[in-house]
Amino acid sequence: MILSAIAFYGFSSVAIAAGVMVISARNPVHSVLFLILAFFNAAGLFILMGAEFIAFILVIVYVGAVAVLFMFVVMMLDINLVEMRQGFLQYLPIGGLIGTVLLIELIFVVTSWAVAPESGGLLAAKAPALAEVHNTEALGRLLYTKYIYLFQGAGMILLLAMVGAIVLTLRARPGVRRQRIGDQVELRREDVIEVKNVPTGTGI
Q1: Residue 197 phi/psi, 5° resolution?
Q2: What is the pLDDT of residues 44-81, one digit of tens each?
Q3: pTM value?
Q4: Average pLDDT of the residues in 14-27
Q5: DSSP states along the chain
Q6: Of 33, 32, 36, 46, residue with least CA distance to 109
Q7: Handedness of CA 33, 31, 66, 37 (dihedral sign)
């Protein structure tokens, strides 16, 4: 019980601090790194609650895909990379701090992992019935029935965020030809095709 309480307060404190740093950091790259740290600690909290599936999805989807996508979007913005490279030693303590915290949490999880004595007999046991599956099935039933509108709303928010990222990174550049769908749709056959009657023997 004491170990669980220590882990809870540790994950919570780091997650709150990382969340504050996401919105207070001046460098957007640092904000993305703190966001990844917040995701990892939120996953640790889900593991303490017994929701391993949500924790794995949080790490795989949000850290592995969304956070990396944010990083690519940030790198596509107007950031002075030369200035960032000049201050590499200045950014090194922050990156080292985040890496150290993640390493300590991984060591804490690995060292506190214990195998139950009765787990050996579970390998030969039959698969449980569908009604006895409580974690993923209960999550799916609850998510797609009671909270279906909130789930769809979250999807719309992510769609708007994706459109906003495209709008931020899409800029008009001189000398680059862009496709104009409206102009293409309004074109008529007479505007783009000219039929000429070339007499025999007068061609090239």
Answers
A1: -95, 105
A2: 888 888 778 888 888 888 777 777 777 676 666 655 55
A3: 0.48
A4: 87
A5: -HHHHHHHHHHHHHHHHHHHHHHH-SSHHHHHHHHHHHHHHHHHHHHHTT-HHHHHHIIIIIIIIIHHHHHHHHHHSS--HHHHHHTHHHHHHHHHHHHHHHHHHHHHHHHT----GGGGGGTTSPPPPGGG--SHHHHHHHHTTTTHHHHHHHHHHHHHHHHHHHHHH----TT-----HHHHHH--HHHH-----PPTT---
A6: 46
A7: positive
107-121 pLDDT, tens per residue?
877 776 665 565 555
Q: Where are the domains of the chain?
A: 1-111, 133-171
Specify the CATH class of 1-111 in words.
mainly alpha
